[in-house]
Design brief:
By secondary structure, this protein is of the alpha+beta class. Helix content is about 20%, strand content about 40%. The chain has a six-stranded mixed beta sheet with strand order 1-6-5-4-3-2, with helices on both faces.
Length: about 90
Amino acid sequence: MGVSISDIKYLVERPDILGFKLETIRKDTEFNTLITDVKQNGIKIENYWIKCNKDTGECEVVDDNTNNLVIVNFLKKTIIRYITTKL
């Protein structure tokens, strides 16, 4: 993919700087299985857990403070931020 883990952290915080399209999706349910997988198999940089897949060109990022899931797709230059809401 040609980016470092610290670049992914910066990209999640400021997607507009590198020309990525940001989409926010609110969900009533949590992504517990995927979030747990990222935390168990990913790398922690400050308050972010990051797990990347070179084959799909995607990185899954979990914010440790909010437990929100972010998927960065480098092929499509999109970032999808899943925010859990409490009803």
